[in-house]
């Protein structure tokens, strides 16, 4: 038995886009094709999972590569997104 | 002779999205391009097979790589999804 | 001279999706990108060729890799599907 | 000066899908990404170039790999299709 | 200052699909992903750049590989098409 | 609690396309698949993230490769875009 | 403050397709996936960035490979397009 509601409690379907909405202004980690990952604060997104991030650090093949004040990350290269703290 | 019904008994067509619906709140294994797999509890999904997972463990090339409280996994890198227990 | 009819006799066009419908509850072999193949009983499908399978065995690079009670296999990695017996 | 007509005589445009229609019940060769080719009798197709084939032989890297009574071959991996005899 | 007209004289926009129309019944060379090229007479095409060709010779990695009476070449692997003579 | 407004202050969703609008006439860095990056002044864009740039310098595998007065960069190869200064 | 107008002066958004329109009958350089580039006169284009070119020279891995009177270059392999002179 499954109920759909707007909130996020156990027993309810969590919609993928709601995970992004709940992560706004919080730190997230984004795993990207090509052994890349990005960590930063989510400022915005659209339905393609294009993300606006601030205070971003970039890791390629496990090495710290750069720091960016602001970044627009295209959604189509993303493998997964993980909120850093409790959602 | 094929009949289509909402439930999932032998002799009836199982719709792919119903497999996800029936796996909600249960543990699933997801095989992903690039020798990756993820195991966690399915909290939600959308029509693109984007998945919301919790208590996720990541395996890359057979090695345990990480644990994530929560994850939004993009559907377009998925090869297959397997429910862990009886559906 | 070509006639289109709902059945599947010689001289009539076989529609690709009918091949899936005729394979329901039967064993099929699925060849997938990345030197993978899957063999199992077809329980369902959708227009994207996403498949619901049961009693699935997985072969990667010619080696038996795993057995799955149930699997949702994404259509977009499939190269071909072959019914095991007469269609 | 170009005229468009339903038949296929010299001086008229041959529509790609007509090439498939004219190959029904005939042997065709299909070249597929990944150094694969398939040869078999075309039983059906759809607008995505998904093909239904029977009596199929598979060649990978120039080696005979298998024989299949029936096959549903996805269109999106196809490089070209060649009718074996005169069209 | 740019004018759009149906013909193809200097100073007018040449529409890509017109290049195909003007090449009907003429020899063209098609460069395809994977170090392949095809040379043959264009008999037809559709809006996806799927091509119907006759008297086709295939070159892979600079080596002559085969000759085909007729071929349906999928448009999505094409890099470029070049008419052999003046258009 | 999330509010959506046209401006860009903390606490409001930043839409990805607004990041591009706010970068017009400013220097941006674009990371592109294939170990490439481009730095130049953004003159325009469309909904596909195709960019018009001027005074562009190209870096491939960490080496300066070229300078371009003007460039139309296709959006579908972009990994991320980063404004150089404060947005 | 951003104004949108049909011309191309500083302070106005340059639309990507306008860059192509302004390059008609002029020489452009096209960088293509697979270490390829093409240089020639732009005769036409469509919304997919498919280009009609004349007097084209091809460079692969830095080596001059061929010259083509006329070419239809598919848009989906293009990385960037650069007008040779002032736009």
TrEMBL record, chains A, B, C, D, E, F, G:
Q: Does the keyword Ribonucleoprotein apply?
A: yes
Ribonucleoprotein listed as a keyword: yes
Citing just one GO molecular function, the answer is: RNA binding
Q: Give the Pfam families listed for this entry.
A: LSM
GO (cellular component) term, any one: ribonucleoprotein complex
Q: Which domain of life is it from?
A: Archaea
Q: Which UniProt keywords apply?
A: Ribonucleoprotein
Q: What is one Gene Ontology biological process annotated in the Swiss-Prot or TrEMBL record?
A: mRNA splicing, via spliceosome
Residues of the Sm domain: 15-87
Q: Enumerate the NCBIfam families for this protein.
A: PRK00737.1
Q: Which family does it belong to?
A: Belongs to the snRNP Sm proteins family.
Q: What is this protein called?
A: Putative snRNP Sm-like protein
Per the UniProt record, the source organism is: Acidiplasma cupricumulans
Q: What is the lineage of its organism?
A: Archaea, Methanobacteriati, Thermoplasmatota, Thermoplasmata, Thermoplasmatales
């Amino acid at each position: 038995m499954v109920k759909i509601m707007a909130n996020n409690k156990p027993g309810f379907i969590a919609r993928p886009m709601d995970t992004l909405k709940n992560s706004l202004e919080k730190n997230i980690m984004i795993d990207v094709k090509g052994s890349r990952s990005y960590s930063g604060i989510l400022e915005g997104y659209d339905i393609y999972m294009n993300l606006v991030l601030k205070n971003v650090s970039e890791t390629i093949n496990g090495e710290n590569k750069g720091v960016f004040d602001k970044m627009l990350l295209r959604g189509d290269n993303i493998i997964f997104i993980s909120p850093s703290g409790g959602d």
